[in-house]
Structures are given as structure tokens and as C-alpha cells.
Design a protein that fits this description.
The protein is of the alpha+beta class and 449 residues long.
Length: 449
């Protein structure tokens, strides 16, 4: 085993490591510039089955998910690429989503009964009693309520809200869960190329020219790890793979779960564990992610993340789909959810020698905090604060056939050759050792005579 490790290290330093750095002409650069496979983002939207009971009686929402509605994303190359003198490279990540009707259950015009984003967010943004009385006037004038009927396209990418259109001061009336998206960019990212230090390959040096996010306290506010597309070479099973996701406004991590294989390439599967969203009572290190004292009951509950500071004060909460790993009291505030790990966990399948992510599924749920607001008639029936699911998404990709063939040729092939060389050396060494022992014993027996 020691001989094998030595040979792997030697082969990698001569052949594989040069391909793992983010430099023009390497495998890493080709996959870094534009994904080597199609990335799809699937959406399941929650449809409210008992809208009148929810609106008039404050009843528990009965939800039914419908989907997937599938979009192709991440297919444009990175923009504004700049190689820096300090061994880093900077770039912007363009946001684009193209609807894929053949991979969807319906059209973008399918209609859902869902939460009214503007009405529900109003009391969180404006806590003053007098302001809420004014808001109530405009909400009633627009005939808005706690729930609304919207199409898939409107829910995801934006619509002109009638309540906001009534507000008599300058305000963008367009709302959507991901508005604005198409035509925008994420970044500026600045990452290490690995040319000066291979152990830093793809690790984010800064995001939007900052090392901190200004959303959390302490180390929780730091931008840690990579963007998840790749990691430094020689990934080990006992590592925590840290990566940053602007979708959830924080860094997170994966732990080794199992060995996998895709298109003949051996991989390590890392999954986001339940501890990443656990309450500080269970995992003390999570104390600085707990900013909400209402829904989390003084940080004793887990499974949801308040990212309102990241969303201009709007009461947005992130969780795993169907409140996977969340506390029972959070899950039981709504009906119709069925969490299970196989469908709802996030995983990354990593080629351990190069650190490349060759298959992944990033899954998360977008929720809104609903709170009682006695001065706003549309919310007057709400009995207590609770987290209301809007939708969940599954962003997936797997290495394409052409890229997989190239990867097998340049990475898997040399490693297999190394195994053959290892066996040959072991056999040759064993033969030489036996020959030496036979020769030694023969000479010793002659000497004794």
C-alpha cells in the first residue's frame, strides 16, 4: 500500500496535477470556463388545496407539489475573466434559464394557488403600526389577499404586483421568487488557480471583493471553500468539503457518504449532513446562523435558515426540500410534505484525484415566514408565525459522454496504468526477493559444508 501511495503521488505530480490547475489549456480550465455537462434546474411548486380555509379561518395549509418544471442553466461561459498576479483568477457568473418543455410536466402558463409574496412580506418590512394601517388600505384597494393565483413563469421570474402598484411612492412593483435573474450575473468571484499552491485550487479568495458576507456573525459570515464545481486535488474520505452558495447566502459543507461510479469513473459521494442545518442546541458551531428568535423558538429548533438579511429584509427562509431534517413542529405547521433523503438531500460526486465534481444534485426549498398582523386585514386570521413553503428546486448535472471519454483517457487511464505498473513491480520485486533468498540459502549451505 505504501508503494502504491508513493507511485500515485509521483504519477499525479508528473501527469495529473498540471491538468488540475485552472490555467489555459488544462482539463480544469475547460470545465471551469463552461460546465462540461448540461446543468438543469427543476422546480416543484406547492399548490394550496384549501385556500378559503387558510384565508378565512387561519387553517393549516394543505399543499400539493407539482412538477418538475425544468430549465437549463449555467450554459454560458464565465464573463469578465481576469488573471491576477497573485495566483488568482476573477470572473462573473452569468445567470440564464431556458425552459425545457420536453423535461417538464406542463407549460410555464400552468397556474398555482400560492402565497402572495408582497402581502406576506409587508409586516416584516414595515413594523410601524401607522405604516401597516396605510399598507392595509392599499392592499384592500388592490383586492389582494394572503394567497393568489399565479403562473409558473410569474412565480419564478416575476410579475407586476397589484398591491405594490397602488403604493403612491417610487417602488418597483415587479416581484418573483428569483426576480431578477435572466440577464444578471453572480459575482465578482476571485479564486485561486492552484498554479502557486495546488492545495488552494478553486478555493474562493473573495466574493464581491470581500471575504465576509455581512449577513452573519463570526466565522459563519466567512466565504469558505470553492463554488462546488471542483475542489483541490487528492480528496480524502475524512475531509469536510466546504463550498459557498450564493443561493443560500452562506458557506456549507459535505461529508463522505459512499463510493460511486459514473460512466466508468470511480467517485466519492459527499452529502450535506443534517448537522449543517441543526440548531445550536445540537451543534454549537451553528450559533451564528441563528438570527431568528421567533420561528426557531430561541434557536432550539433546526432545519430552516433565516436569510432575510441577504434578501433586503424580506422574510425568506431556506431549508432542504419538504423540510428534510427540520424539527417536527416546523414540518407539522403545513400538510402534504413527505421528506426523504433519497429525493431531497444535496450531494456532490467527486473524482478524488483531481477534485472535479462530475455529478451533483443541489436541492433546496424556498419558504416565506408568515406572521400575524392585526392591522393588515389580509393577515388578521393568521394564528401564529410559521414557515410557508413556496417551492423546491433540484439543480443537477452529470458529466457528458465526450467529457467522460476524455477524462477516462487523461485521468482514469493513467491511474489504471499505475495499478498495472504497481502489480508488475510487486511481482518483479517478489521474484527478485525469492531469487535472492534462494541464492542466499544456497551460498550459506555451501559455506557450511
Amino acid at each position: 500500500m505504501a508503494l502504491k501511495s508513493l507511485l500515485i503521488a509521483l504519477m499525479s505530480s508528473l501527469v495529473l496535477i498540471p491538468e488540475a490547475v485552472i490555467a489555459n489549456g488544462t482539463i480544469a480550465f475547460e470545465n471551469w470556463l463552461v460546465p462540461g455537462s448540461s446543468v438543469y434546474r427543476q422546480f416543484w411548486i406547492f399548490d394550496v388545496q384549501n385556500p378559503s380555509e387558510v384565508i378565512n379561518n387561519g387553517s393549516r395549509p394543505k399543499l400539493e407539489q407539482r412538477g418538475p418544471y425544468t430549465y437549463r442553466v449555467r450554459y454560458l461561459p464565465k464573463e469578465n475573466i481576469t488573471e491576477n498576479a497573485d495566483g488568482t483568477i476573477s470572473y462573473m457568473l452569468p445567470n440564464v434559464a431556458r425552459f425545457e418543455p420536453d423535461m417538464s410536466v406542463g407549460t410555464e402558463n400552468d397556474t398555482f394557488t400560492c402565497l402572495n409574496l408582497a402581502v406576506v412580506a409587508a409586516p416584516a418590512l414595515y413594523t410601524n403600526t401607522f405604516i401597516q394601517l396605510l399598507l392595509n388600505t392599499w392592499i384592500k384597494a388592490s383586492k389582494s389577499s394572503m394567497l393568489q393565483n399565479r403562473t409558473v413563469k410569474e412565480i419564478l421570474w416575476g410579475y407586476k404586483d397589484p398591491f405594490l402598484s397602488k403604493v403612491p411612492f417610487p417602488l418597483n412593483p415587479v416581484l418573483g421568487v428569483f426576480y431578477p435573474y435572466n440577464g444578471t450575473s453572480d459575482g465578482l468571484y476571485k479564486v485561486y488557480t492552484g498554479t502557486e499552491d495546488i492545495t488552494k485550487t478553486a478555493i474562493i479568495e473573495s466574493y464581491k471583493n470581500k471575504r465576509n458576507l455581512s449577513y452573519w456573525e463570526g466565522y459563519c459570515d466567512m466565504v469558505n471553500g470553492t463554488d462546488g464545481a471542483s475542489f483541490p486535488p487528492f480528496v480524502k474520505k475524512n475531509q469536510k468539503l466546504r463550498f459557498f452558495s450564493s443561493d443560500i447566502c452562506r458557506s456549507i459543507y459535505g461529508v463522505f457518504r459512499s463510493k460511486q461510479e459514473v460512466k466508468g469513473i470511480p467517485l466519492y459521494r459527499f452529502t450535506v449532513p443534517r448537522e449543517a442545518f441543526a440548531s445550536p442546541v445540537e451543534v454549537e458551531d451553528n450559533y451564528c446562523f441563528c438570527t431568528d428568535k421567533v420561528i426557531s423558538e430561541n434557536c432550539t429548533l433546526g432545519g430552516v435558515l433565516d436569510i432575510s438579511a441577504c434578501k433586503a429584509g424580506r422574510p425568506v427562509f431556506i431549508s432542504l426540500p419538504h423540510f428534510l431534517h427540520a424539527s417536527d413542529s416546523i414540518l407539522n405547521n403545513v400538510e402534504g410534505l413527505s421528506p426523504n433523503e433519497e429525493e431531497h438531500e444535496t450531494f456532490l460526486d467527486i473524482e478524488p484525484i483531481t477534485g472535479f465534481t462530475l455529478r451533483f444534485a443541489k436541492r433546496l426549498q424556498v419558504n416565506l415566514l408568515v406572521k400575524p398582523a392585526p392591522k393588515i386585514e389580509a393577515l388578521s386570521k393568521v394564528k401564529k408565525p410559521y414557515v410557508f413553503p413556496l417551492l423546491w428546486l433540484n439543480e443537477t448535472a452529470v458529466i457528458g459522454d465526450a467529457k467522460a471519454e476524455m477524462f477516462r483517457k487523461k485521468v482514469t487511464g493513467p491511474v489504471q496504468l499505475l495499478s498495472i505498473l504497481q502489480m508488475a513491480l510487486i511481482i518483479a520485486g517478489s521474484v527478485l526477493f525469492l531469487a535472492f533468498m534462494v541464492s542466499y540459502c544456497t551460498c550459506r549451505s555451501k559455506r557450511l559444508k
